[in-house]
Specification:
This protein is of the alpha/beta class and 325 residues long. It has 13 helices and eight strands. Strand 1, helix 7 and strand 2 form a beta-alpha-beta unit. Helix 1 (3-22) packs antiparallel against helix 2 (29-42) and helix 5 (71-91) packs antiparallel against helix 6 (99-113).
Length: 325
């Protein structure tokens, strides 16, 4: 089938989904699932926009990965279909009054037969990726600590691949580098774990949404396009002041394009947010991470200086790894 045909079908099912959003008797998400599949073959940028939609994107991703329908969507569909059946039975005449009831009887049992969301695997990750923050590097203390623990686990017989790359300042180049590296691992998503701090937490969310893997977000940057705008120009690395780079204005728009408005399948995420963060707004981070396995700290700081003593065991346990070598 040619690409224009897929595009036409995608538009057709998008329209049906729009009608379903207004009329309770018609479903919305199933039509959008088909539309996204058509756009994937006919016009991938439109598919990407659907996946990034804050309301419907998570539903599409949950269905693709797990055949799941979120609990809230099930409840809403039940209320709307039952309400439509009652309304039709009271106000309409003839055989048409029973159509919404028949649809509800057929569709609702199937909807409730689907899982609510992701089944988070309890198996240990075999591939661990750490993503550092802005102006940081693999020399950061959390990166070094995790690298050391990964090596200890490997020496103790754990099957574990460790990767902590130096991220380029361009968001597009950074995500391209990470996608290529992750593609080379050739393992199931449940075997991949991503830990990201600050801007690395932003990237961890972007990648985990695309892969469907587990991720740990440490004081994640929620709005890097806004927060990093004041850093446009020449910058120096924290760990090597002699190493300099240019943070360019076009990177801001790249951050906007990559942004994840809302996390899906939040049981796949662990988040550590410090109210004492001196760089980022803890309220904004906590709101973005609501529904995840969230550790909201009364104090702390942006770097999470007590990471080794207070949080490392929890991170390793979430990823299914041994908490001690």
């Amino acid at each position: 089938m040619k690409r224009p045909v897929y595009v036409a079908l995608g538009v057709f099912f998008m329209v049906l989904g729009g009608v379903g959003a207004v009329l309770p008797v018609m479903p919305t998400v199933p039509f959008l699932l088909v539309a996204a599949a058509c756009f994937a073959r006919g016009h991938p940028p439109w598919e990407a926009r659907m996946l990034a939609h804050p309301l419907y994107g998570p539903h599409i991703l949950a269905w693709r990965r797990h055949g799941a329908i979120p609990l809230r969507a099930k409840q809403l569909a039940t209320v709307m279909m039952c309400g439509s059946a009652l309304f039709s039975g009271l106000l309409l005449q003839g055989w048409v009054r029973w159509v919404p009831t028949v649809i509800a009887v057929v569709v609702l049992p199937w909807i409730w037969s689907r899982p609510h969301g992701a089944r988070v695997s309890a198996v240990a990750v075999t591939h661990l990726l750490y993503l550092h923050g802005f102006r940081s590097s693999p020399k950061s203390f959390k990166a070094q600590l995790l690298a050391q623990r990964a090596e200890e686990l490997k020496q103790g017989g754990q099957d574990l691949t460790w990767w902590c790359p130096q991220l380029p300042p361009s968001p597009e180049e950074a995500v391209k580098l990470l996608r290529e590296g992750l593609a080379g691992w050739k393992v199931e998503p449940e075997r991949i774990g991503i830990v990201g701090s600050s801007l690395g937490g932003f990237y961890a969310g972007v990648l985990a949404e695309q892969l469907g893997c587990r991720a740990v977000l440490i004081n994640p940057a929620v709005q890097p396009a806004r927060d990093l705008a004041r850093y446009i120009g020449e910058q120096a690395s924290y760990h090597d002041p002699e190493e300099r780079f240019f943070f360019r204005e076009e990177f801001i728009e790249q951050f906007r394009t990559l942004a994840v408005p809302a996390l899906s399948e939040r049981e796949r995420y662990m988040a550590i947010v410090a109210k004492g963060d001196e760089v980022l707004d803890w309220r904004e981070m906590a709101q973005w991470c609501e529904g995840t396995q969230l550790k909201l700290l009364e104090g702390g700081d942006h770097a999470l200086s007590d990471f080794e003593t207070a949080h490392l065991r929890d991170v390793l346990a979430f990823l299914g790894l041994k908490t001690a070598p």
